[in-house]
């Protein structure tokens, strides 16, 4: 029987709703009874590591979590890992772990949209499905996977798309890479390559700003005044920004602060298509770094990881095309 670690970090999956409809953390993890029922699937060990709502998660806590997982793998000779997590920042933790952990052991991240005592609570079902995926031979070597609502998503492509629906996690443009049914765990495609940056710390400060019609440079200048090490801009469409912010972007790049471009559209990639002021072509000319379909929150984590390895803009650009 496979040995699977279930490590809790908190989130709605570990919360309860009170008589006034307020959802809050529980002292005792409500998943205990579900874990007992897993004995026919795997030999499960539990680590009550954290009990945080996921808006309280930080990149440094994510690094600590990666360290803890590495220790547990060494000490316990695990066949797979399931991490329970709040859904609000789940995709960020999943993606950063995916960048850091360069092994073939399945790591599954799951959560819930309904707390443990709500009608139709999805936590227990998601936990069981995740342990089944973690115990599947086919999950090996696929990087960190996100399992909710009987779907298996890659950490790279998954995003939270709905504020409350249990089918919230989707991989726009690509879809899930597998499904979980009563009879088995089925993968139907895989990522063509994995992207690994096995950093052990994240010391750089990277901001994320979204463009909007009529944006001026005051907000960029205010952010730049806080001594950032990098900036991610969520641009319009194929990668275009208002012309009014071009001077501020040029100043940042001249100060050797990388500016990384993603799209506010959740499908497609940014490219140097448009040649008008603020268009992708003019952004490329001033040295803005283009990404390959990552969303803003993930590009920010990747830039933090990459900046631990190099400050050279052409190396950073190469790493973002991966
Ligand atoms: N469904 C959830 O888990 C949302 C919660 N606010 C959290 O991320 O902790």
Automatic annotation (TrEMBL):
**Where in the numbering of this chain does the L-asparaginase N-terminal domain appear?**
3-190
Task: From the Swiss-Prot or TrEMBL record, give the protein name.
Answer: asparaginase
- Under Enzyme Commission nomenclature, its number is 3.5.1.1
Q: Which UniProt keywords apply?
A: Hydrolase
- Similarity comment text for this entry: Belongs to the asparaginase 1 family.
Q: Which SMART domains match?
A: Asparaginase (SM00870)
Q: What residues does the Asparaginase/glutaminase C-terminal domain cover?
A: 205-320
Extract the Pfam families matched here: Asparaginase (PF00710), Asparaginase_C (PF17763)
Give the first-level EC class, as a single word.
hydrolase
């Amino acid at each position: 029987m496979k040995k699977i670690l279930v490590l809790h970090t908190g989130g709605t999956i570990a919360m309860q709703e009170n008589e006034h409809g307020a959802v809050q953390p529980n002292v005792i993890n409500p998943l205990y009874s579900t874990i007992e029922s897993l004995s026919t699937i795997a030999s499960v060990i539990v680590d009550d590591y954290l009990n945080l709502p996921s808006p309280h998660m930080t990149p440094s806590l994510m690094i600590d979590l990666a360290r803890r997982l590495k220790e547990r793998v060494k000490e316990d000779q695990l066949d797979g890992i399931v991490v329970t997590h709040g859904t609000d920042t789940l995709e960020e933790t999943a993606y950063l772990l995916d960048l850091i952990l360069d092994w073939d052991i399945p790591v599954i991240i799951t959560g819930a949209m309904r707390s443990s005592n709500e009608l139709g609570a999805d936590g227990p079902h998601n936990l069981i499905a995740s342990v089944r995926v973690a115990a599947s031979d086919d999950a090996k070597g696929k990087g960190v996977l996100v399992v909710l609502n009987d779907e298996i998503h890659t950490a790279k492509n998954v995003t939270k798309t709905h504020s409350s629906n249990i089918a919230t996690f989707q991989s726009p443009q690509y879809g899930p890479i597998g499904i979980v049914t009563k009879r088995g765990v089925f993968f139907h495609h895989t990522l063509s390559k994995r992207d690994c940056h096995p950093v052990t710390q994240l010391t750089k400060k990277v901001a994320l700003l979204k463009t909007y019609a009529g944006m001026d440079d005051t907000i960029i200048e205010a952010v730049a005044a806080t001594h950032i090490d990098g900036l991610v801009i969520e641009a319009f469409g194929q990668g275009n920004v208002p012309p009014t912010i071009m001077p501020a972007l040029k100043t940042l790049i001249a100060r050797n602060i990388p500016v990384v471009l993603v799209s506010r559209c959740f499908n497609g990639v940014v490219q140097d298509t448009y040649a008008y002021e603020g268009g992708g072509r003019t952004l490329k000319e001033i040295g803005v770094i283009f990404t390959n379909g990552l969303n803003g929150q993930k590009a920010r984590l990747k830039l933090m990881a990459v900046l631990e390895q190099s400050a050279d803009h052409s190396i950073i650009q190469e790493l973002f095309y991966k």
